[in-house]
Structures are given as structure tokens and as C-alpha cells.
Amino acid sequence: MSSLSRDDVAKLAGLARIEMTEAELVELSSQFGLILDAVARVQEMDLSGVKATSHPQPLENIARPDVVLPSLSPHDALSGAPAQEESRFRVPQILGEAE
Amino acid sequence: MIRNTAAQMADALAKGETTSVELTQAHLDRIAAVDGHVKAFLHVDSQGALAQAKDVDARRAKGEKLSPIAGIPLALKDVLAQKGVPTTAGSKILQGWLPPYDSTVVGKLKDAGVVIMGKTNMDEFAMGSSTENSGYGPTFNPWDLTRTPGGSSGGSAAAVSAFEAPLAIGSDTGGSIRQPAALTGIVGVRPTYGAVSRFGLIAYSSSLDQAGPFGRTVLDTALLHEVMAGHDPKDATSINAPVPAVVAAAKSGDVKGMKIGVIKQLQGEGYQKGVQTRFDESLQVLASLGAEIVEVDCPSFEYALAAYYLIAPSECSSNLARFDAMRYGLRTGDVDGASAEAVMSATRDAGFGREVKRRIILGTYALSSGYYDAYYGSAQKIRTLIIQDYAKAFTKADVLVSPTAPTTAYKIGEKVDDPMAMYLGDVATIPVNLAGICGMSLPAGLADEDNLPVGFQIMAPAMQDQRLYQAGAALEAALLSKWGAPILSKAPELKGAK
């Protein structure tokens, strides 16, 4: 049976930028064994020589002529901002003190 | 008036027997009377709806040429952005967000004069099969208020089933239109991937997501399908081809000589007895109408669920990275000196629910180096095999069929602590999404053991959506004459309803 420890889940939560309580970490790690066993079934079939499909359609880049079209005004673009200043998004500190 | 079909309502509007304002008000009254029990809506935009209705009535009075469903009220899944109207995708992280733009689907509805009455409840970011994962509490099945309406588009399905709206829009990533349609006794269609624009559809799993119509009849569903579909330059995956003639197909409803393939892997063991019985009966009905029934083998479908629960979480872990507390939505923990990373992590903890966190973590794991090939890579190869199974099956049959869901509606809370049991409910609908083809669920009757609706699923190749409607309309008409009345006439009256 597959498993993920509490510390494994904590590491993944860190990568995904989700703070988690101890209870959440323990609950998730206890559920993950079953879920991983179920999804690991994709490895049961012989998949040698099978191509991977990432998308149901053949995707291609689509370009359009470089002309100006209507778009959101700064006011509209900022309308949902949690904080703003001088027509810009105000964000928390990105670089640490030492940098 | 509210119990009529959308086609009948459209007819009454065209003949001047009623107005859109009258029709819209009747539905708003119904919502006020019963939605306290059903909880299909997250937001009802009465003023906006009546203004739209008034506008359509004025245009009709002037003799303008209008779309076939102009003036008909509709319920919109809260996953689609509507300018100036609260749009949350069922998540606390988007509480209070007012989109500064319309999704293409909403733009098309407005152009067609469809009256958008409000936003419906859903599993958070469409992740779930019961609407219990909504950040705003569950929706209740109008057939039995102790049960779920399915999900993730449970609010939209319940609204149509409870006569709060004749039409609704949902989105279907792994069955989220077809399964709730099955569990509430209505019709739901997931169009071919790329047939309906995803611009302004809040993304869960971009290679699987597709918006589609709900109605109480196959024809009503087709009328909405034709209005919402079509090429959109704003969506790079939008198919640049004419919309299949789904309304004409729904009106013809002929299956004589049609080859109908029963998928061996999607029936029998694991399917509730009453579900299997109604499914088998519907097959006999189709055979009696002149269809040829064949059995088809799709061996890789056994692995579809596993592939889906790797691909969808992987894509979601990437898509939901945009909820970073910087540009819109919730921000918490923004105290003096807190780093952007700390604010982001605190916000995502506070704003995301359990299932969303579970899927983001699973996706992060499946995509992490060292595990990528074994999980995400293998899942993508299974996806290829599923596409090949379908291609082979469609050489033997024009449409493929199965029960939509293995069981009827289950109790609220029954599976909420057992994610794998919940995921199993999508076993018959997921292959369609992985292959990017189209599928419909329509009512096949009530299961004997619990008197709850059973869904019959029809699948067709990409951009052959009209075949769903042709076969669906034939089955619907034959079942209606057998039952003597539409299935929803057997649903109990809702408390508080006039």
C-alpha cells in the first residue's frame, strides 16, 4: 500500500503555498494511501509504445494581427484588487530584508 | 406557466400570450417560495433579470427578429463570469468578487435575449460530485431534500428540476452536467470539447472542462446548446466549425437503422439494480423503435477513473496557482512585514475548502519530479488508449450508451468523508471527458427500490453532437408515451410552494 507521511504532505503543501493545520496534515496523509493506491492503477497496463495525450485536440499556436482591440481599463482591472495604490496592485513584501 | 417547457414558453412569448417580464417574475416568485429548501442559488439578480426581460419585451414589441429562446429565464452556474454580478465558483476565495467582464457564454446569452436570473451553487471550483464541497453549503435534491442533487453543477440541475428555471447552464469536467441531470430527473449535455468557449469559465482542468446546457426536455436543451456554442477567437481551443444542427435533430428524433453500442465495461457489477433495470428497459425501447443494439468492448475504461484523478488534479494544481491573493479575491494575513509568500499561503488556507486542497496536493505530488512519469505520464497514456477504444467502438456504432451514474441520488453526508467512494460515482461519465467527445444524460425512469430518477447516457464522436439529440429525442418520446406524463410530475411537491 502506498502512503505519504505527515511530513511529505507538509512539504507538498509548502510547494503548493497552502498553510495547513496539524489536523489537516494528519487527515490528508491518512487519506492519501487509499487515493494513491487507486490512481496507481494507471501503472497496471502495459503502456510501452503508447503515446501520451495531453489534450483532446491537436493544439497549435494561433496568432492574430497586431492591432489594438478594446481591453480592460486600469480602473476595471484593479476593481477586484485586495489593495491598490497609484493605479497599481499593492502587494506584500516580495524580497526578504537580507536581499 | 413555470411547469411548461422552454419551447412552450418561447411559443407563448412569440404569440404575445405572455411577456418575458411576466415569465421572469413567475420564476423569481418560485425561487422565493422554494429555494430556502433547495438552495440552488448563491445569488439571485432579480433587478438585473427583470431589466433584461423588459428590454427583450420592448425589442419584441418593436418587431425585432429575436433568437428562439429570447425572453426565457435561465440559471447560470457560478463558474461563469458575469460582469458586475458576484461570481465565486463556490469558493470563499472569490467571495465578493465582481467580474469586470462577461464570459463568452454570458455574452452569447445576452445577445440572444436570454434572461439570466442568478448564479447557482456548485462544488468549489467544480471539484466534486454532490455540491457538498461548496464553500456556501450544499444544495438539496428536489426529489428528496435529504439527498444530494449530484454535482458539481448541482445548483443548476436542482433549479431546473424544481421549476425555478426552465433552462440552466453547467460545466462538465468529469460528468458534472450529466451526473446531476441524472440524479434530478432532467436532461443535461456536455458538448464536444471546444464546441463552447471557455473564455470566462473559471478553470479547473483545462483539457477536460466544457460548459453545456440543462433543460427538462431534449428539445429545450438543444435550443440552449445552439445559442451557447460556436467558435470564439478568445479561446485557443475553440473549434472553428459550424455548430452541429442539434435543434433539427431534437425535432426529428428518429433512431430507425441507428446502431447503438452498449459499452460492456459500463454496466453490471457496481451498478444499482434499479439503475440497471431502467437502462435495460430503455435499450429495449430503442430496439423497438428500429435501432440496432450491439455490444462494444472498451477495455481501457477500467483505468479511466484512475487516469482522471491524476490528470484533473495535476491541471488544477497549476490552474489554481492564480489564486495568489495579489490581484483579486481574498487576501488574509497581510500584516506589516508579512512576506508575499506567507500572505499567499495564509490566504489559500483560509479560502480553499478540503476537497480543493486535497486535489491541489495530489496534483502537486503527481507532477513532482521523480513521480511525474509514473503518475501523470502514465495517465496521459491511458488517455490515448481510451481515445483509441472510442474510435474503434464508433466504427461499430453511431452512438454509445450506458447508465449515467452507478446509483441514484445518495444522502447528504453519506460519502463526504470517503473521497474514493465519491469519485466512483463518476466512473461512467469520465471517459467522455478524457476523449474530448460529447455526451447526454436523459431520464430513464425511477429506480424501483427508492423511486429516484435514473439517467441514461448517450455518447457521440466529437462534433457529432446532433446524434445525441436525435437518439435522445426518440427515447424521450417513446418513454413519455409509456409513462403518460413527464417524469418530474412524479416528484413530490416542495414545501412552501404555491
TrEMBL record, chain A:
<dbReference type="Pfam" id="PF02686">
    <property type="entry name" value="GatC"/>
</dbReference>
<protein>
    <submittedName>
        <fullName>Unannotated protein</fullName>
    </submittedName>
</protein>
<feature type="region of interest" description="Disordered">
    <location>
        <begin position="71"/>
        <end position="99"/>
    </location>
</feature>
<dbReference type="GO" id="GO:0006450">
    <property type="term" value="P:regulation of translational fidelity"/>
</dbReference>
<dbReference type="InterPro" id="IPR036113">
    <property type="entry name" value="Asp/Glu-ADT_sf_sub_c"/>
</dbReference>
<dbReference type="InterPro" id="IPR003837">
    <property type="entry name" value="GatC"/>
</dbReference>
TrEMBL record, chain B:
<dbReference type="InterPro" id="IPR023631">
    <property type="entry name" value="Amidase_dom"/>
</dbReference>
<feature type="domain" description="Amidase">
    <location>
        <begin position="22"/>
        <end position="468"/>
    </location>
</feature>
<dbReference type="GO" id="GO:0005739">
    <property type="term" value="C:mitochondrion"/>
</dbReference>
<dbReference type="InterPro" id="IPR004412">
    <property type="entry name" value="GatA"/>
</dbReference>
<dbReference type="Pfam" id="PF01425">
    <property type="entry name" value="Amidase"/>
</dbReference>
<keyword id="KW-0436">Ligase</keyword>
<dbReference type="GO" id="GO:0006412">
    <property type="term" value="P:translation"/>
</dbReference>
<protein>
    <recommendedName>
        <fullName>glutaminyl-tRNA synthase (glutamine-hydrolyzing)</fullName>
        <ecNumber>6.3.5.7</ecNumber>
    </recommendedName>
</protein>
<comment type="similarity">
    <text>Belongs to the amidase family. GatA subfamily.</text>
</comment>
<dbReference type="InterPro" id="IPR036928">
    <property type="entry name" value="AS_sf"/>
</dbReference>
<dbReference type="InterPro" id="IPR020556">
    <property type="entry name" value="Amidase_CS"/>
</dbReference>
<dbReference type="GO" id="GO:0030956">
    <property type="term" value="C:glutamyl-tRNA(Gln) amidotransferase complex"/>
</dbReference>
<dbReference type="InterPro" id="IPR000120">
    <property type="entry name" value="Amidase"/>
</dbReference>
<dbReference type="GO" id="GO:0005524">
    <property type="term" value="F:ATP binding"/>
</dbReference>
<keyword id="KW-0648">Protein biosynthesis</keyword>
<keyword id="KW-0547">Nucleotide-binding</keyword>
<dbReference type="GO" id="GO:0050567">
    <property type="term" value="F:glutaminyl-tRNA synthase (glutamine-hydrolyzing) activity"/>
</dbReference>
<keyword id="KW-0067">ATP-binding</keyword>
